[in-house]
Amino acid sequence: MSQIEWTDRTWNPMVGCTRLTAGCVHCYAAPMTHRFNHDHYVGLTHINEVGRVDWTGQINTAPPHIFNAPLKRKKPTVWFVNSMSDMFHEGANDCDIVRAFEIMNQCPHHTFQVLTKRPSRMALKSRQLGLSWSPNIWAGTSIEEDKFASPRVRELLKVPAALRFVSLEPLLSALPSLDVSKVDWVIAGGESGREKTVRAVDPEWVRDLLKRCRFVGTPFFFKQWGAYGEDGERRSKKKNGHLLDGDEIFEMPADAYDRLTAYGRTPDPRWTRIPSRALLRPADRLEASAMPYIAQGQATDSDDEYVLSLMRGDRETYENPQRRKKLVSEPDRTRWETEAQWKHFLDISL
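The line above is the sequence of DUF5131 family protein; the predicted structure tokens follow.
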């Protein structure tokens, strides 16, 4: 079983990655892969110029007994795909991607959560390789800062998946640009880790996301506070827990519930089933299909330097959220509520 609350198990048909943005600084997968330095994990990591474990950029294919694991498991399961990699990494082999999708298509009793920081490549490869996004395959993208919200969701909407979701972990800023009405599920969580430069999540960012999700009916899943608790105190991830204002918010799309129950399995009792809703879905898909392909998500030199400075613990670059909180302004919050109310009114009128 996985320790990730929003899934059952992890499946890694490929391993290896590259740090792309500031959200990757404290990646759990790199040091874990470094410890696993055997078999298909060889050559994936190295010690970088600042003395930290880092990725080499190499992507390896898992051996058959791992690659074909979902085919052998008969119990309906929710799988997080590539927790130790990114299926749409630039170094991923097209044949591996196609084979992984063939396996997922052959397992309608399972649910597969495909999460990437490269949604533009996800959309591109879906077209180039003719990938079949059967209803049991969900498409998701990670968003850690507001500058990535609009472009990554825009690219995600080009993916012909039945369910699209966003993972806001680690949540490093408020996300005023994220339109939660355009996705089917929102996951949020704070950053964890033992490093001194681990960044805290501000409770107001989480409350604002929850309020907006509740307004439009998008399921919201708050995974964890991470290294800093709701009160701003640093503790272990386990002690800080995941309660928001005393509530456990583990909302799941109805699709996951219905698929599991249809195949005779009881879902995790902590999950709350949220009925599916299609808010402006046809219009969104029509608009997305007309958008040109944008090569978004590539790391720039400035991004690389920022990531390295964080790994060094450079306090001149590192903004401690305990000292400088970037809260959502009241005018922004009022504007969002007004726009959402008008959209809801127009939907009812039409």
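Note on the example: The radius of gyration is 20 Å. Confidence is low (pLDDT under 50) at residues 278-304, 310-333, 338-350.
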